[in-house]
Each structure stands twice: as C-alpha cells, then as structure tokens.
Write a structure and sequence with these properties.
109 residues, mainly alpha
C-alpha cells in the first residue's frame, strides 16, 4: 500500500516577516545609540532626546496635533547648551565636526 505524500505548503512569508531582521537591527542600533548618548552626554540629555523622539513619532505617525504643539514648545524652551546637545551635526547651533576631505575633492559647504 503506497501513499502519496503531498508537498508541504509553506505559508507565503509576509512583508513583516521579511522586514523583521531589519527591524531587529534598527532596534539594536537605537539601543546602542541610547547607551552612547547616556555615556557621553548624561541621563538628562538622553531623557530630553527621547522625549523629542517620542513626540516627533506621535506627530508623524498619528498626525497628533497635541504632540506637535508640545514638541514646538519643548524645542523653543531649550537652552543654548541643550540645543547644541540635541541637534544633529551640520545643523545651525551645533558645533561642527571636522571630517577629512578626500584628495581631489572639494569640501561641501
């Protein structure tokens, strides 16, 4: 008596399944960045940056107008030192970070 074995059907992987390794990497990098910020700038700077990040995400993902209002108020109320601490490199108010220019190219300005 021979039986035919049907081929195993695998569920087609969803986009979420395909993206999971990328999502995991992004979360890992975020945790590492948080550790570096706490180590280099302190817990207060980390807490401020995290608050800004959370308000930004709420506004962007959910069009949360109260988050937008809170974010604008928070950013306007930052001291000069806090502003320097939370702005990305290359933005006004941030100390410039020197980057070597490869030979034969001009520095962008």
């Amino acid at each position: 008596m021979s039986r035919t074995i049907a081929p195993t059907r695998t569920r087609p992987s969803s986009r979420a399944d395909k993206d999971q390794p990328l999502i995991d990497d992004i979360r890992l990098l975020g945790r590492i960045l948080g550790d570096v910020i706490r180590e280099q700038e302190g817990q207060a700077a980390y807490d401020l940056i995290e608050q800004i990040r959370q308000l930004s995400v709420a506004f962007r993902r959910h069009d949360d107008q109260s988050a937008d209002k809170a974010l604008k108020k928070l950013l306007k109320g930052l001291s000069g030192d806090q502003t320097v601490s939370v702005k990305p490199p290359g933005q006004p108010g941030r100390r410039p970070t020197p980057h070597p220019t490869p030979r034969g190219t001009r520095a962008r300005g």
